[in-house]
Amino acid sequence: MKKLIVSLLLLSAICSVVYAAKISTEWQAPTMNIEGTANSILSKLDKSLFLTDKQKPKLLPIISRYLQQKIALQPLQHSNETAYKTKVNSMQHGLQTKLKALLTPTQYTEFMGLKPKTYDETNVLSQLYY
Hints:
The protein is mostly helical. The protein has helices at 2-26, 34-49, 55-79, 81-102, 105-113, 126-129.
């Protein structure tokens, strides 16, 4: 009987540790190759918007900075979702303001039309809109 109780306590302790480890990994911010992702986004935008040689080098740091800020906010998504949404909305507004100043009106309209209907992991542009 003593062995059974000790075994159950040991099993309970192991389950608690495994569960705690699972929870802690669920809340970690995903990693992203910011440079690679920014370059992929720029490439897609270039093909769709026909960016000029003057626009491309100005657009890359705007995209990279936005992605860095987005990654930095990920922990807040789980600890304070309201604050997270407010900050993301503000960041997206800032991004759109910068893009509107950089792109021609036609390009900006095209950019807004590129937004996927929902977040799509296979579409790198989702990083800019969601």
